[in-house]
Design brief:
Layout (H helix, E strand, L loop, with lengths): L6 H4 L15 H18 L3 H6 L1 H17 L18 H11 L5 H4 L5 H10 L2 H12 L5 E4 L16 E4 L5 E11 L6 E8 L9 E7 L5 E6 L8 E11 L4 E2 L5 H37 L1 E2 L2 E2 L4 H29 L5 H26 L10 H11 L6 H13 L14
Parallel strand pairs: 1-4, 2-4
Antiparallel strand pairs: 2-3, 3-7, 4-5, 5-8, 6-7, 9-10
Helix pairs in contact: 2-5, 5-9, 7-8, 7-9, 9-10, 9-11, 9-12, 10-11, 11-12, 11-13
Length: about 425
């Protein structure tokens, strides 16, 4: 595989179908175009190297980050006080689609640590904020978030087994294991969900702790390939000492803090999945137009036209759901229902569009010469990330049904 293999169609302009981005404010359009060009012209050609990991990937990523800084595209949504550009969610939502067309786009452009920076800015000790936030925003310190555990359902944090025992100096000692922790193998700081003093099941005793990867007792156990791709890790905490100032937020407040980042994180994922679905759509349409058979091009086949139509319909109907969730979240309103709808719709949409693109490509869509296997893999894993579809479906349905009264014949209330 060579670095240019993903370029054949992934970097092509949008076709005459004009996926575009309805509703994108004029003040965001030019910036979106610059980000889109950077991702397609700089990041995508490096994907084979970045996907492989190791020293070559680290060198390539540092080069991309330096280019992003030179072009004024670095850390667009991160707070200005810590070295970011302070682009608010209403505008950044339109940029995030273009940035997320590649899995490596957020890291290359410096927006990947947004959730950690916001969490630490709001809830960390002043010493931690002064020591780390500018360095995280600048790309000098890499972060990850460890919540999921082996043998413990990720949808039930009340069963968290990792524990933090208080010590005589007012700090904590961590024992436990986490897995499917994104980026843990390269991280310098890990935020860990743990149960304080092993107080049994439930959520009232859960707290968050910031652990340096250099701390004695921290251990990277193994990488966990997801459908053949790396980037997820299992890690262990074998008596890791944590100073008191490295507790994030008040004791017992972990789920409230986690909830803040989860809602925004789900919206950001959905926006990035839209960008990846557009990429798959472009590939499908270019293949349909360029692939000829004895009876004519694939684009003339009604079944291919049906896949193009269904894919465009899925993208166009999902985008308003995602942007509605982003708008409510930016306005400080309750966005749980909208986020649940958007998360399920966007995950299904990406899997559908990537699958259709593979079908139009035939065997070529299964191999290493296009980005489609990776896009399909992301679409499939999307239905489990940040809570499985079933969790969101149940939560949304229950929320809706609470607005209906079995004793009333009148019209049901609104939200």
């Amino acid at each position: 595989m060579n670095p240019g293999q993903h370029l054949s169609a992934a970097d092509a302009p949008l076709g005459s179908a004009g996926l575009g981005q309805p509703g994108c404010p004029p003040e965001a359009e030019a910036l979106r175009g610059r980000v889109r060009a950077f991702v397609r012209e700089r990041v995508m050609p490096c994907e084979p190297v970045l996907d492989a990991g190791g020293d070559a990937a680290r060198t390539a990523l540092r080069g991309l980050q330096a280019e992003a800084k030179r072009e004024g595209l670095w850390a667009l949504p991160l707070p200005e006080e810590y070295g970011g550009q302070g682009l608010g969610l209403p505008l950044y939502a339109h940029i995030a689609e273009a940035e997320g067309a590649s899995d490596h786009g957020p890291a290359a452009l410096g927006s990947a640590p947004l959730l950690d920076v916001l969490m630490l800015a709001r809830h960390a000790d002043d010493t931690v904020r002064k020591s780390f936030l500018r360095r995280i925003t600048g790309g000098e310190v890499r972060t990850c978030y460890a919540m999921t555990e082996p043998e413990t359902p990720g949808t039930d944090p009340g069963l968290t087994a990792t524990r933090a025992e208080s010590d005589a100096a007012g700090g904590w000692v961590l024992h436990g294991r986490k897995w499917f922790t994104s980026g843990a193998g390269e991280a310098d700081l890990i935020t860990v969900l743990a149960r304080v003093d092993d107080e049994g099941h439930g959520t009232d005793s859960l707290s968050l702790f910031l652990v340096p990867a250099s701390a004695p007792g921290f251990r990277v156990v193994r990488e966990l390939p997801v459908l053949g791709a790396g980037g997820q890790w299992e890690i262990a905490f074998d008596g890791v000492a944590v100073p008191p100032e490295h507790a994030v937020g008040a004791p017992g407040q972990a789920l409230r803090i986690a909830g803040e980042r989860l809602v925004l994180g789900r919206v950001l994922r959905c926006l990035r999945w839209l960008g990846q679905a557009e990429r798959a759509f472009d590939l499908m349409c270019l293949r349909a137009r360029s692939r000829g058979q004895s009876a004519g091009p694939l684009a003339d086949r009604q079944l291919v036209q049906q896949m193009v139509f269904d894919s465009l319909l899925a993208i166009r109907t999902t985008r308003p759901l995602v942007h509605e969730a982003a708008a409510r979240l930016a306005a400080g309103e309750d966005a749980r229902l909208e986020t649940g709808l958007a998360k399920v719709a966007a995950a299904r949409m990406l899997q559908q569009v990537a699958d259709a693109a593979i079908q139009v490509h035939g065997a070529a869509g299964l191999g290493p010469d296009t980005a489609l296997p990776g896009l399909f893999r992301t679409g499939r894993t999307a239905r489990l990330l940040d809570g499985p579809d079933e969790l969101h479906i149940t939560a949304v349905a229950r929320r809706v049904l609470r607005g209906y009264s079995v004793t009333s014949r009148t019209d049901p209330p609104g939200r």
